Amino acid sequence: MNVLGIETSCDETAVAVVRDGRAVLANVVASQVTLHAGYGGVVPELAAREHLTAIQPVVDAALAQSGLSLAAMDAVAVTNAPGLVPALLVGCAYAKGVALALGCPVVGVNHFLAHIYGSFYGCPDLLADAAAFPLLALVVSGGHTALVTVSADGHARLVGVTLDDAAGEAYDKVAKILDLGYPGGPLIDRLATTGNPKAYAFPRGLTGTSGKALAPENRLNFSFSGVKTSLLYAVRDRTLTSSDRADLAASFQQAVVEVLVAKTLRAAAEVGAPTVCVCGGVACNSQLRRDMDTALRKAGRRLVLAEPKYCTDNAAMVAGLGYHTLRRGGPPAAGFRVSARLGADLGKVPFAPLLKDDD
Ligand code: KG4
Ligand code: ZN
Fold first, then answer.
1. In this predicted structure, what is the pLDDT of residue 305?
2. What is the average pLDDT across 126-137?
3. Are the C-beta atoms of residues 111 and 85 closer than 8 Å to each other?
4. Which residue CA neighbors atom 19 of ligand 1 most closely?
5. Quick check: CB of 185 below 6 Å from ligand 1?
6. Cβ pair 291, 257 in contact under 8 A
7. CATH of span 2-117+311-327
8. Hey, whose CA ends up nearest to atom 7 of ligand 1?
9. Do the Cβ atoms of 127 and 275 come closer than 8 Å?
10. Rounded to the nearest whole angstrom, what is the distance from the C-alpha of residue 97 to the centroid of ligand 2?
C-alpha cells in the first residue's frame, strides 16, 4: 500500500511516500526556518500562509522522487494533532481534498506518536519482536519532552512529561539569549563542542540535586525553565566573548543532556524496558546521542536512535504510522478534526507485535 504522508504541524512543509509502512520512496521537507528566524520562534499565521504556498510544490517534488503518480497512492495520512491549529488546517484540508479526488481513505495521525514511529525505519523488524517490548520512548523536540511506554499489545502510556519548556524550546530560547539565531538546537550543539561543560553549574531540573526534595510524582517529569532562567541571569549586564558563549552553550547542554539521560535510564529500569527509542528534533543532538548510547550500553538495554532525517519533523513518520492505523481498520474516513493538544490519553498505538488483527 502506497501512503502519501503530509506534515504541516509547525514550520516544515513535509511530504513523503511510504510503501507498506517501511519503504520510504520519497521524503521531502521544505523548511520555513528563514521566515521565522527574525522572530526567534515560529509565528503560527505566517507558518500557515507559507504551508499554503509550499504544499503543492512539495507534493510534486515527493511524487517525482518516488517515481510514482498521484493516482498510484492508495491512501493519504496527515498530521491532525498536536500542533499549531492554522498550520494543521492547511495540511488536513489539502489531504482531505486529495483523498476525495482519488477516492481513497485519509487518516489523521498524531504527530507525537509519529515521532516514535520514525525511530523504526532503521530497524522495522523490531515491530514484530515481542521480546523487545515494552518499549520506552523519549520524545524530545521543540514541542514535547516526554517519556512514553508502549507495551507489546500496543498500550501507550505517558510516564513523564515536562512541566514547563520542552527541551528544544529551551535550546531555542537560550540561542536567542546568546544571539546565535534560530533554531537554536543545531547552533548550540556545534558551539558546545568548543566550550567547557563545567564552566557554569546550571540547575538540573527535578532531580532533587538543588537541595529541594523531589516530589515522588515528579520522578520522571522534566523541567527546563530553571536552566534557561539561570543562564539568563548569568549573562545579564555582561559583554560576552565568543569563548564565554561557547562555555555557556556547553554548560547548558550538559545540564539538559544529563537530565534527559538520567530520567530515561530511571524510567527504563522502572518499567523493565529492554528497548529505548530516542526521537524528535533534539534527538539529533550529538552529545545526547553519544551519552545515551554509553549509558544504555552500560545498563544492558538496546538503544534505537532515530536517524537524524527522521528526528526532525518529516512526513515519512506520518505516512508510516498512518499505514498501520489504516491496516487495523483505522479511524473513520475524513471524519477527523485538528487539535492543538496532545491529550493525556495516548490510547493504543497500531504498531505493536502482539496486537490482534481486530484490535
Ligand atoms: O521535532 P522537531 O523538528 O519539531 C517539533 O515537533 O518540535 O524539533 C525541533 C526542535 C527545535 O527546538 C530544534 O532547536 C531542536 O529540535 N533541535 C536540536 C538539534 N537539532 C534540532 N536540539 C538540540 N540539538 C540539535 N542538534
Ligand atoms: Zn515534531
1. 96
2. 96
3. no
4. 185
5. yes
6. yes
7. 3.30.420.40
8. 142
9. no
10. 24
Q: Is 143 in the pocket of ligand 1 (CB under 6 A)?
A: yes
Whole-structure pTM over 0.90, yes or no?
A: yes
pLDDT band at 336 (very low <50, low <70, confident <90, very high): confident
Tell which residue, 158, 178, 284, has the closest CA to residue 235. 178
The answer on pLDDT for 5 being more than 80 is yes
* Cell 489539502, located at residue: 94
Q: Which atom of ligand 1 is nearest to the CA of 280?
A: 1
Does residue 11's CB lie within 6 angstroms of at least one atom of ligand 1?
no
Taking only the tens place, the pLDDT of each residue in 346-356 is: 888 999 999 87
How many whole angstroms from 183 Cα to the centroid of ligand 1? 7
Comparing C-alpha atoms, which of 2, 5, 101, 3 is closest to residue 55? 5
* pLDDT score recorded for residue 212: 79
Cell 523493565 sits at which residue? 272
Share of the chain above pLDDT 70, in %: 97
Evaluate: CB of 141 within 6 angstroms of ligand 1: yes
Find out whether 257 and 283 touch, Cβ atoms under 8 Å.
Answer: no
Q: Which residue of 109, 193, 253, 282 sits with most ligand 1 atoms within 8 Å of its CB, as the best mutation to test the pocket?
A: 282
Q: Among 312, 313, 314, name the best residue to mutate to test ligand 1's pocket (greatest count of ligand atoms within 8 A of Cβ).
A: 312
Residue having the nearest C-alpha atom to atom 10 of ligand 1: 142
Label residue 330 by pLDDT band (50, 70, 90).
low
Residues of the chain with CATH 3.30.420.40: 2-117+311-327, 126-307
Query: Is the pLDDT at 332 greater than 70, yes or no?
Result: no
Residue 234 CA, ligand 2 centroid: distance in Å: 30
Residues 6+ apart with CB under 8 A from 70: 4, 59, 63, 98, 102
Question: Looking at residue 334, what is its pLDDT?
Answer: 65
- The superfamily CATH assigns to domain 126-307 is ATPase, nucleotide binding domain (3.30.420.40)
